[in-house]
Amino acid sequence: MRNSWADSVENVATDNVGPSGGNAASASTRRSSYVPPHLRNKPTAAEPLAPSQGGPPSGNDRSGFNGPTSGSRWGGSRPDYGRQGGYSGGSRSGGGWGGRGGGWSREREVNPFGNDADVDLEQSFDQENTGINFDAYEDIPVETSGQNVPPPVNTFAEIDLGEAVNLNIRRCKYVKPTPVQRYAIPISLAGRDLMACAQTGSGKTAAFCFPIISGIMRGNFPQRPRGVRTVFPLALILSPTRELSMQIHEEAKKFSYQTGVRVVVAYGGAPINQQLRELERGVDILVATPGRLVDLLERAKVSLQMIRYLALDEADRMLDMGFEPQIRRIVEQMDMPPPGERQTMLFSATFPKEIQRLASDFLANYIFLAVGRVGSSTDLIVQRVEFVHDGDKRSHLMDLLHAQMANGIHGKHALTLVFVETKKGADALEHWLCINGFPATAIHGDRTQQEREQALRTFKRGDTPILVATDVAARGLDIPHVSHVINFDLPNDIDDYVHRIGRTGRAGNTGLATAFFNEGNLSMAKPLADLMQEANQEVPEWLTRYASRSYGGRNRRTGGGRFGGRDFRRDSSYNRSGGGVNYYDGGNNSGGYGNHSGGYGPGVTSAWD
Ligand SMILES: Nc1ncnc2c1ncn2[C@@H]1O[C@H](COP(=O)(O)OP(=O)(O)OP(=O)(O)O)[C@@H](O)[C@H]1O
């Protein structure tokens, strides 16, 4: 069923052809005092500096899109790999802790904001943001549990992220933190491990990036070994797909611009040599897909022994069957410091309880945070479900697309994402749409990396405003102007549905999701009806009837609460009394969230925004 995911794992794994290298731990024996990025190269009388970092003083003008040039399948050929549109050398205006940074030759740091970098820097955080409907998030219920939960903040100004990061937040035009950021950033800045669940499109990337960048800037880490061909990142961000890793890398580069913190990405399907060159120039934060990282670890090109921050984005997917062995290998069987010695952050919009249980192996005395119910979809997305027999799906799709055009909902500001089950199905539907006059492209695990990136690029630009995709595009991708997600084939798992429809209705914007349902999807009837009802959607009567017959499909939302949307540690079956930590008795509830306990039992902090 999850072909495309397995394939994506497989594809990454096929890159793991390097010889087994020795464990890099042996390379690191010398330790002297660490020079934080903001102080690198900075002469100071008061405190003698350790020798500067070992990365050769070379340029930083890399691109996250490292593949060779390829022609467009849609006539939009543009040899722009390696050149992010509009990127130019950035201004060298100060910023940074201590006013400068850059052990990695920041004078050549590419400006990730293009020409926008220095606009509105005078703008303060309390000005209105454009385009983001923050009111949409105001009444989202928030639950936190764990010991001594730090209180949330209301503004970025309340968080001590440092001037350089604050400037970048303004450059991103973020005016105030989203709810998950309000809670997660103070928790992470306090050094706590975190399992965070928040709805799609609600700003989780920044929620884990800001504390990592800030922590590296102010941290006092041991000097990393120099003169060896192994690199020692301080932070590792893992994500399940190449495109998502590239996106996180792009975001993290914006957030860390002119901080001296260097972010590098490594993913499969792209030439490893170019990624190795980037790594050798120095890396503080490594963003990676698991397969390529294992390859780099086996070649002893990367050591994890200096990791202080570990973030798993789409953490439930990372610990699902396809990825779990690789993740365990990376986190538990290489040279990464154990929980407690590193800070671990797990983020997703969905967190089934069995995965929460697995995930707890990676965490130490963690805080659980749920913004909205675990696995719920945002009511910014209007959900529709239509009964369509398999044989009628294409003509039904065409009716929908024609109706969109008739209503002026098409073009580059109204992109349509169509999810199908199989790679073959994606190719076939793309072809059929194209011969019927709808400019479409497709993305799936059998396409080359170049083709995948090209498909995303032409879709984002609106050259092909219809993208047919397997689940490889279901998670994390933040594509502006996706106004309609169509589940041509429904997934078999409600959480996958939540992620798929979450490609629209992001950052406070509204969106539309249409699902084609038929007898082949009976196991989805109940979870789908429940989810729609919870999100205040109109549930068709026929779907309610199917749901009431309960076909016993896989529904992860079992146990406790309507959707079981809470910390699994509160389940009675979870018993750590045998000498373990009781997370709920005597927990110091931070209060101050409106003092709403939410009825989750003693010791559990709950909050309502
Ligand atoms: N504080 C903020 N103010 C305005 N926009 C923001 C803010 N934080 C994040 N965004 C924007 O919101 C969008 C969604 O953010 P992001 O991709 O991090 O969501 P997410 O929660 O990780 O979604 P998903 O669950 O699909 O991975 C992005 O375009 C991001 O730039």
UniProtKB/TrEMBL annotation:
InterPro entries for the chain: DEAD/DEAH_box_helicase_dom, Ded1/Dbp1_DEADc, Helicase_ATP-bd, Helicase_C-like, P-loop_NTPase, RNA_helicase_DEAD_Q_motif
SMART domains: DEXDc, HELICc
Pfam families found in the cross-reference section: DEAD, Helicase_C
Keywords: ATP-binding, Helicase, Hydrolase, Nucleotide-binding, RNA-binding
All copies of domain Helicase ATP-binding, residue ranges: 185-369
Compositionally biased intervals (Polar residues): 1-14, 23-32, 60-72
Skewed-composition ranges (Gly residues): 83-104
Protein name in UniProt: RNA helicase
Residues of the DEAD-box RNA helicase Q domain: 154-182
EC number: 3.6.4.13
CDD domains per the UniProt record, alphabetical: DEADc_DDX3_DDX4, SF2_C_DEAD
Ranges where the record places region Disordered: 1-118, 551-571
GO MF annotation, one: helicase activity
Residue interval(s) of motif Q motif: 154-182
Every Helicase C-terminal domain range: 393-547
Catalytic activity: ATP + H2O = ADP + phosphate + H(+)
